[in-house]
């Protein structure tokens, strides 16, 4: 059995999850990425970013595989992979049981192999390397359980087939005929805690399927593309921490935005920027419990001095996300460096104040009662923004080339004051409404005057710039200007003309000096969904649906999307699965049905400023 993982594309991986953490399972039957305690913890299988020596867990036929088919069991995150060989066929079932405790202390990966046809020889290979592939554990056997211990971490491994320890790895060989089954359990615990107790893996399989299907049954949407929406909702749920309510941007770190490039970032954290879009996707689908938990996470994370507000936090709201490189990992297909942590957590980005105010506005508009201290937090944020919106910032794309007066950032400052005014009029009439209105109107006028390039005939990335930026597509989505305003139409046309490749949207041209990084990245899939929304809002329904269907076709065989797409090699690139991309899919699908146009537009009344008609 070949153990090489370098030939797998990013799209060859599927996600399994217990809504505390998750793992990536390759088409070859190998789990190549697994952070056992939580999504942003150190990995014990890191072959995805290195090689087999950095840890993996593979189960596959010994003979050459002639065909491979994968699917999730209906309405679940339980993965089935069918392997065909010349001798017969077997099915590999991978899942993570849902621990029902409020604060689970362990996580489990269950792998079941079923004989489907003929007589197939199967091999298991398990290499555990804690702390991103750097720590070789001590493995010992007690009764029928093997335990791998390394510092604070421990994995218990048992199965229905005998496992053999050899040179820091575990192996097993067995043969299955049609109807026969073998199973294996990998259980994480802190090394100071007692061994995890054995349990009936087949009963757990049925319970886990029932749990996921019960969750799916809460979805209120029954319109077009329901299956596609449901798979994206399941993916969001899989990236959610059941204990904290935080939703990670992705399961992975350092999957490159261009193969061989250096734009490799850690996305295993919670971005405030995603909050309103995520809330809308959940609320519009009937998931109020997750929406409330996400809002509570948001309020806990941002509490404190508004000057210390971050754009990104840990799964539990952690603020210290220091960025560092992992030199012993060679990177996915030699894309270096591999990074953990994210220095963007220390950037100043004005737009997040608008995102927070918009999120709380959306929640209240949907009948979610805010916590008692929410308005005090909002007042504090507005006081800070009042004296800081005029300053340059690092922008939505977290560029590292110096601060600028980004048009999108100023627009989102307008959103903050606009939502503050709306909420104050509805719930807090003693707020300084008139002052906020004056600031709101001042920002709107400034953006229209300084963010619009008359020579180019469109809004641009920064004041005084001629460069385009896909974040400008959010103007009608947040209610800043109508999608039918001539300036917005012209900006959309310019983006279609100058900022697309292969029909999909770039964030911006990285060849400029605003970036501060070597140029080159893929097509950013969330921005392409924003273009779908704009086309729909402009009445260009056929074009919007055509682009949406094109984006659906980019999903891998189990319905997952990453952050970006490379039109040259025609493959998904960037971290996977990307929550923001799946949120875009959900919202665009709903927009195309006519019951959710603009994602946030339903909650943002048209601006009180004259538009060109």
Largest sheet: 14 strands, antiparallel
The parts where pLDDT drops under 50 for at least 5 residues are 597-613
Number of helices: 13
CATH architecture descriptor name of the largest domain: Alpha/alpha barrel
CATH class of the largest domain: Mainly Alpha
Task: Report on this structure.
With 613 residues, the protein is α+β, with helices and mostly antiparallel strands. The chain has 2 domains: 10-192 and 209-215, Beta-galactosidase, Chain A, domain 5 (Distorted Sandwich), CATH 2.70.98.10; 218-603, Glycosyltransferase (Alpha/alpha barrel). The protein contains 13 helices and 25 strands. Strands 1, 2, 3, 4, 5, 6, 7, 8, 9, 10, 11, 12, 13 and 14 form a 14-stranded antiparallel β-sheet that branches. The chain has a 3-stranded antiparallel β-sheet with strand order 23-24-25. A two-stranded antiparallel ribbon has the order 15-16. The protein is globular and about 75 Å long. Mean pLDDT is 92; it is low at 597-613.
């Amino acid at each position: 059995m070949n153990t090489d993982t370098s030939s797998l594309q990013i799209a060859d991986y599927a996600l399994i999850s217990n809504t505390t953490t998750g793992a990536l399972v390759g088409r070859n039957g190998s789990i190549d990425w697994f952070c056992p305690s939580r999504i942003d913890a150190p990995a014990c299988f890191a072959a995805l970013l290195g090689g087999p020596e950095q840890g993996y867990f593979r189960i596959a036929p010994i003979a050459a595989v002639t065909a491979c088919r994968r699917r999730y069991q209906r309405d679940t995150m339980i993965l089935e992979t069918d392997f065909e060989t010349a001798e017969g066929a077997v099915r590999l079932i991978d899942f993570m049981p849902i621990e029902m405790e409020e604060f689970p202390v362990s996580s489990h990966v269950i792998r079941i192999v079923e004989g489907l046809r003929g007589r197939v020889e199967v091999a298991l290979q398990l290499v555990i390397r804690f702390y991103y592939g750097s720590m070789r554990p001590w493995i010992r056997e007690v009764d029928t359980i093997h335990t791998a211990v390394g510092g604070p971490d421990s994995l218990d491994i048992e199965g229905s087939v005998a496992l053999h320890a050899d040179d820091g790895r575990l192996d097993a060989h067995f043969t299955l005929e049609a109807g026969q089954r073998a199973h294996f359990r990998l259980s994480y615990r802190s090394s100071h805690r007692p061994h995890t107790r054995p349990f009936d893996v087949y009963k757990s399989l049925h319970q886990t399927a029932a749990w996921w299907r019960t969750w799916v049954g809460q979805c209120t949407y029954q319109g077009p593309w329901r299956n596609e929406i449901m798979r994206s909702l399941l993916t969001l749920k899989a990236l959610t921490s059941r204990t904290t309510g935080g939703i990670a941007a992705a399961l992975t770190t350092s999957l490159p935005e261009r193969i061989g490039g250096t734009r490799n970032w850690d996305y295993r954290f919670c971005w405030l920027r995603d909050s309103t879009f995520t809330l809308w996707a959940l609320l519009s689908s009937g998931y109020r419990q997750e929406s409330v938990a996400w809002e509570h996470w948001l309020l806990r994370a941002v509490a404190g001095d508004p000057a210390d507000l971050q754009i990104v936090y840990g799964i539990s709201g952690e603020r210290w996300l220091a960025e560092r490189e992992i030199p012993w990992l060679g990177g996915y297909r030699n894309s270096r460096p591999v990074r953990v942590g994210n220095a963007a957590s220390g950037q100043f980005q004005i737009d997040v104040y608008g995102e927070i105010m918009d999120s709380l506005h959306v929640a209240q508009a949907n009948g979610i009662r805010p916590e008692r201290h929410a308005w005090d937090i909002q007042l504090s944020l507005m006081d800070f923004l009042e004296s800081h919106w005029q300053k340059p910032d690092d922008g939505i794309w977290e560029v590292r080339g110096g601060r600028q007066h980004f048009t999108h950032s100023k627009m989102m400052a307008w959103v903050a004051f606009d939502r503050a005014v709306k909420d104050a009029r509805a719930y807090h009439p003693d707020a300084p409404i008139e002052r906020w209105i004056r600031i709101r109107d001042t920002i709107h006028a400034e953006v229209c005057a300084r963010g619009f390039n008359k020579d180019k005939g469109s809004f641009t990335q920064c004041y005084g710039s001629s460069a385009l930026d896909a974040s400008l597509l959010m103007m009608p989505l947040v209610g800043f200007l109508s999608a039918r305003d001539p300036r917005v139409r012209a900006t959309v046309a310019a983006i279609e003309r100058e900022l697309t490749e292969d029909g999909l949207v770039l964030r911006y041209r990285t060849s400029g000096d605003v970036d501060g990084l070597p140029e080159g990245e893929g097509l950013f899939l969330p921005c392409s969904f924003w273009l779908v929304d704009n086309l729909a809002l402009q009445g260009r329904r056929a074009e919007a649906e055509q682009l949406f269907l094109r984006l659906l076709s980019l999903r891998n065989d189990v319905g997952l999307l990453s952050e970006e797409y490379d039109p040259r090699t025609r493959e998904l690139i960037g971290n996977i699965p990307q929550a923001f991309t799946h949120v875009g899919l959900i919202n665009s699908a709903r927009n195309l049905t006519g019951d959710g146009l603009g994602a946030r537009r339903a909650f943002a009344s048209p601006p009180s400023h004259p538009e060109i008609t």
